[in-house]
Amino acid sequence: MESKKKDKKAAFIPQGQEQEPLRAKQPDLKDPEVVLSLLEADQVVAAKQGTRFGRRELSFKVRLMLWGLRIYVAIMLVIVAVSIFRALHAH
User: If DSSP codes are grouped into helix, strand and coil, which group holds residue 56?
Assistant: First the structure.
């Protein structure tokens, strides 16, 4: 039994001083990896599903460009359809 006591190492505390209790450090909640490691799997899924970006306000020039691209694609679809129709009936 005495050998077991020798194996255990006690922390040296000078006389007259008290040992401060060990406290866990507060996690850095600004670090996304730390936050994700603290959450349960269902909490992560719920947080990701709750994030919605919504529509973004686009400038007039960007909206005009997008409408131009839509019109271009529609015209190209018509041209391709007419070309396919002519190719099939040219026999």
Answer: coil
